[in-house]
Amino acid sequence: MTTGVRTTIDDAAPAATGRTDAPCAGAGRAGAAGAGAGLAGYYDAPHTSAERLERIARMDRRSRTWADAPVLRVADYKPFQVLDGEGLRCSLYVSFCAFNCRGCYNKAAQKRNYGVEYTAELEERILQDLAGRHVAGLTLCGGEPMLNATNLLPLVRRVRAELPEKTVWSYTGYRWETLELIGGDRWELVKNLDVLIEGQFIAEERDESSLKPFCGSSNQRLIDVQASLAAGRVVEYEVTARF
Ligand code: SF4
């Protein structure tokens, strides 16, 4: 599928319904022009200066060359909570993120060696927790899940195979278009998701009154992954239930 990958740059941001922090995720809506020259139409970031948008765009360009974390490390695992997506969910917070967004709520988790190494025991616990009757699914949070894509794919594929009724969401600082351009395991991970909340977090665009559910700044998008793949364009996801 294609969503019209652009050859210029930009950034995006994360978000979450009712969150007061800014988890990794969410991308900018194409449309309203940002202040940065050459970024018009790339981000809906009307409160952000041209200088900041250029920096965000630079990170987007650089992110295309970043290597995956060699080992999957876990900053936190929180089962049975409602902050990271629709319904009761289990959230896996992975370590390592290089976007370094201003105002990132979890700077410690940006470090590659933060947290503890992912284990087979934790994977079994996640599968067991997800199997709970009232649990809607798994959310991958960061840190940056896409910089751990290769190591997260086996878990996500297991959830798909063993618990097909559960949904899988992920946050990312990457834009959809950038992930599509990069391809490889990052795009493969995207293709195994139900919802992607994408884009760098832009503190200037954090307007509590207009935030979309589960987003940290209003430039981010909640993308219905399977509908987008089928349509060949980005289809935004409509949240129907908070819990
Ligand atoms: S993309 Fe990375 S730096 Fe930005 S808010 Fe998310 S975890 Fe923090």
The SS-based structural class is alpha/beta
The low-confidence parts are 1-23, 25-41
Largest sheet, strands/sense/barrel: 7 strands, mixed
What pattern of helices and strands is seen along the backbone? HEEEHEHEHHEEH
- Helical amount: 25-40%
Q: Which descriptor suits the 3D outline? A: globular
Give the number of DSSP strands. 7
User: What Rg, in angstroms, do the CA atoms define?
Assistant: 16 Å
- β content, as a range? 15-25%
Q: Strands across the major sheet, in which order?
A: 3-1-2-4-5-6-7
Average pLDDT, rounded to a whole number, is 84
Describe this structure in words.
- With 243 residues, the chain is of the alpha/beta class.
- The chain has six helices and seven strands.
- Strands 3-1-2-4-5-6-7 form a seven-stranded mixed beta sheet.
- α3 links the parallel β4 (135-141) and β5.
- α3 runs parallel beside α5 and α4 crosses α5.
- The longest helix is centred in the N-terminal third of the chain and has 14 residues, at 50-63.
- It is globular, with a radius of gyration of 16 Å.
- The model is unreliable at 1-23 and 25-41 (pLDDT under 50).
- Iron/sulfur cluster is lined by residues 14, 22, 24, 97, 99-101, 104, 106, 110, 142-144, 173, 200-201.
